[in-house]
Design goal:
By secondary structure, this protein is of the alpha+beta class. The chain is built from 7 helices and 4 strands, in the order αααααβββαβα. α5 runs parallel beside α6.
Length: 163
């Protein structure tokens, strides 16, 4: 029952945050993405330290080499994570864009406007880079996110999300 309450608490906090995220201007979200990219590079050493512990534990458990490769971070992958956040910031703002409009014969105007979903839940395994990608994409689109990464990457995911 404790885990259910913890998830409910996190989901309620994410829902409350989603309203604030949805109202942020595009330039604010983009600056946040650049700040996240900078922070990942500034904290590369601590991320790689936690990731090494995840990899060592997975290796000791007899995890396949292909799985270990997906789990492992290095300086090049850290740079790619940071660059992905910068590229996300460079994308056009998805919010508030009207992509369909029609006026009915009776004068009723129907429009389709892009808006945030609110809270997105994401479950993924052994790819700590997905943590940064998911956070970045959700921020760009004005959504809050609840992440559930694989237990093999717990330390890596926590430090990346904290940063």
């Amino acid at each position: 029952m404790m885990i259910e309450q913890e998830i409910r608490t996190q989901a309620e906090a994410a829902k409350a945050a989603s309203y604030q995220l949805a109202s942020l201007r595009s330039d604010v979200r983009n600056r946040a993405l650049h700040a996240m990219a900078d922070a990942l590079m500034q904290h590369t050493e601590s991320i790689l330290h936690e990731n090494a512990a995840d990899v060592a534990e997975a290796k000791a458990a007899g995890t396949r080499a292909s799985y270990l490769d997906r789990l492992r971070l290095d300086a090049k992958r850290m740079e790619a994570m940071s660059e992905a956040l910068r590229l996300t910031a460079a994308l056009p703002d998805p919010l508030g864009r009207e992509d369909y409009s029609v006026r009915r014969p009776n004068g009723l105007e129907i429009r389709r406007l892009r808006v945030p979903l609110g809270v997105i839940g994401m479950i993924y395994e052994a790819r700590p880079n997905v943590t940064a990608d998911a956070i970045g994409l959700c921020l760009k689109s004005g959504n809050a996110v609840l992440l559930r990464g694989g237990s093999d990457a717990l330390r890596s995911n926590r430090v990346i999300a904290d940063i």
